[in-house]
Amino acid sequence: MANTKKQAVLRDGAQHSPWQTGLTLMDEAGVFDPGAVYDALIVGGGITGLTAALLLQKAGKKTLIAEAHTPGFGTTGGTSAHINTFADTTYSEAESAFGEAGAQLFAAAIQDGFDLIKTNIEELKIDCDYEVKNGYLYAETEEEAKMLNDIFQGAAKVGVPVAYTAEVPTPVPFKKALLWEGQAQFQPLNYLQGLQKAFIALGGVILQDTLITGITTAGDTHTAESGEIKIKAKAVAYATHLPPNINVLNFECAPYRSYVLAVKLKDANYPDALIYDSQEPYHYVRTHRIAGEQLLLVGGLDHKTGHEDAEKAFAGLEEYTRKYYEVAEVAYRWSSQYYVPADGLPYIGQMPLAADGIYCATGYNGNGMMLGSVAGQILAGLISGKGSKYQKLFSPGRVKPVDSFTEFVKENADVAYRFVADRFGIEETDSLKSLAKGTGKLVEVNGKKVAAYRDDAGTLHALNPVCTHAGCIVNWNSEEKSWDCPCHGARYNIDGCVLTGPATKNLAKV
To answer: Residues in domain Rieske (predicted)?
Structure first.
């Protein structure tokens, strides 16, 4: 008798997110025709990839998604799932770098991403806990209050509704606050499966466990390779954060980790809102019901990937939560990755220095639900020949504004530092014998550096610590049980297998 047991939804880390609870992978994937030339190949099955693929399939384009793992395995499966009309890059900052017209377009793009999610939920009847909430942003210091004034003025100037308020449903004392009505939240993996179901029903195809390692172009046809699999397409879009291998976007975006707790409270003090402070890095809270239980989601303490201690970040987040709320239990804790663009806006469109018809989308900052959705819309428009009113503003080949040059230099100087310094940062006294069960560490063995992890059974997993993407030295992430590259954000599991790009080759075993 065939095994009909459903496979649980996985993600790119050891920690379990609440979105995975009770969810199984969909069986439907369509039928791949290896002899066909597809109109579009979408690399990546997150919110950007599935949004683009569904829109293209609706437009009559024969579309295939190649996903290195399973749909939602990456950032979409680890998001805190806020849907906002504002963004990490403020509208004042956008105006400073791209002018008033650029700020207006940025605001319109955020709104389009928001509206596209809502429209898909309504039209496809997706059950994903979508709820409209008020959003609050508050200041605890005079300096933060000045920043709030700037945020208010920038939003008002581009027509985004915002107002000052004296009331915020938070136990944190504050000096000033803004109210953003009509924000929203949802269950991202349920939403993603709704898109997947609609895409397959229209004749789309999804290839899971298919890591695209390279693309060659002959005439107007691109051939993507994954092991022995070859996929031919007229257009290719990388919906993978950074496109794989070495490219100019490695120098345009910096990888960051973001942390979230989902806690049960002793009392009923669950806020019915999306709430953000103005600290750097900031904190945010919201409420979500998972498997019949109400939970408080608390997130923040973001830092560059591979640069800080994940345990310390979670400890700091829990300390903050317990300071203001009566915590009964920490039910979930997880982290996720996003990319910060050098000039504040995402890169969406024709990929620089690539063959015509190869596109990419990255640099969403912490606003991946809205910008990932509108990126899918932009990619679909470009591939179908309709274009997009946002294509110039978000072009990956745009001239970098002067305002971003300092950030560009800082991030890439850091990459150069990590490339050199991490090679000399391991003490000679470290050895494999001192490695406790369930822990990982960079150690020195016979004069060579090794990325070593000893599992709970005592088995040693030893790897070459040199990232296969650009040669930096990976660092151990004790919470997600992964080896993370501090330069461009590639991540590997305990056996060295690629979890997230831009690397396409596994770490070598030693």
So the answer is: 427-510
Measured at the CA of 74, the angle between CA 206 and CA 490, to 5 degrees, comes to: 115
CA distance 481 to 494: 7
What's residue 404's pLDDT? Answer: 47
Sign of the CA dihedral 402, 403, 408, 413? positive
- For range 32-54, the mean pLDDT: 97
Q: What's 451's domain CATH number?
A: 2.102.10.10
- List the end-to-end C-alpha distance of the chain, in Å, as a whole number: 41
Do 356 and 380 belong to one domain?
A: yes
Distance separating alpha carbons of residues 378 and 357, to the nearest angstrom: 14
**Structural domains of the chain, count:** 3
∠ CA 20-304-493 to the nearest 5 degrees?
50
The burial class, CB within 10 Å (0-12 / 13-18 / 19+), for 184 is: buried
Rg of the chain in Å (alpha carbons): 22
Whether the bond into 71 is cis, omega within 30 of 0: no
| C-beta separation of 502 from 255 below 8 A | no
- Give residue 471's domain range: 425-500
Nearest to 234 by CA among 56, 390, 39, 61: 39
Question: Which of 306, 341, 376 is at the close of a domain?
Answer: 341
- 401 or 7, greater pLDDT: 7
Lowest mean pLDDT among 28-32, 93-97, 122-126, 213-217: 28-32
Residue 100 forms part of a structural domain: yes
Of the candidates 426, 440, 451, the one whose C-alpha atom is nearest the C-alpha of residue 481 is 440
Q: Could you give the CA distance from residue 48 to residue 36 in angstroms, rounded to a whole number?
A: 24
Which of 270, 314, 267, 313 has the alpha carbon at shortest distance from 290? 270
> In the 8-state DSSP scheme, what is residue 280?
S
> Are residues 229 and 59 in contact, defined by beta-carbon separation less than 8 angstroms?
no
